[in-house]
């Protein structure tokens, strides 16, 4: 199986090692001394190991641009560059959300405008729910006006979202 970056994915878990010379159990990079009277063999004594993080990709402490694979026991030689994450919002993506998921106000959620998004959802879906009672058409008309206003202002919303990030 291949991991990130096309490198082989480490699927095996390295077992704990016992260094018999100095009575030391090594698990990962943490070592626990044994007070063993039989030359470092475990015998009936239980070795206590600290809680270790789960296996996965973690940032290398010496190079923050790389991730290193921790297999649950030891650090492996597998590394992969961190993916660049862009916080910049795109006009194209905002318009795509508007046209495909406008009724769910996805463009507003994408741009971090949670308040207006929830307000539109209440107006739009409330209008659909209340249509059989005669009130819904007025709410739907308001939602359509809101959508037209959003369509004309998306570029401004994107600029505002990029200025605050």
Architecture overview:
With 165 residues, the chain is an alpha+beta fold. The protein folds into 2 domains: 4-81, no CATH class; 91-164, no CATH class. The protein contains 4 helices and 6 strands, in the order ββββββαααα. It has helices at residues 91-101, 106-110, 114-130, 136-164, and strands spanning 17-19, 24-27, 30-33, 56-59, 66-70, 75-81. Strands 1-2-3 form a 3-stranded antiparallel sheet, with no helix packed on it. Strand 4 (56-59) and strand 5 (66-70) form a beta hairpin. Helix 1 packs antiparallel against helix 4 and helix 3 runs antiparallel to helix 4 (136-164). The protein is elongated. It starts with 16 loop residues before the first strand and ends with a helix.
SSE layout:
Layout: E1 17-19, E2 24-27, E3 30-33, E4 56-59, E5 66-70, E6 75-81, H1 91-101, H2 106-110, H3 114-130, H4 136-164
Antiparallel strand pairs: 1-2, 2-3, 4-5, 5-6
Main β-sheet, in a few words? 3 strands, antiparallel
Quote the distance from N terminus to C terminus: 38 Å
Order of helices and strands: EEEEEEHHHH
| Total beta-strand segments | 6
Q: Biggest sheet: strands side by side, in what order?
A: 1-2-3
Task: Give unreliable regions as ranges.
Answer: 6-38
Average pLDDT score:
77
Please, what is the oligomeric state? single chain
What is the strand content? 15-25%
Number of helical segments with 4 or more residues: 4
| Count of domain modules | 2
Shape: elongated
- Helicity, in percent? 25-40%
Rg estimate, integer Å: 29 Å
- By secondary-structure content and strand pairing, the structural class works out as alpha+beta
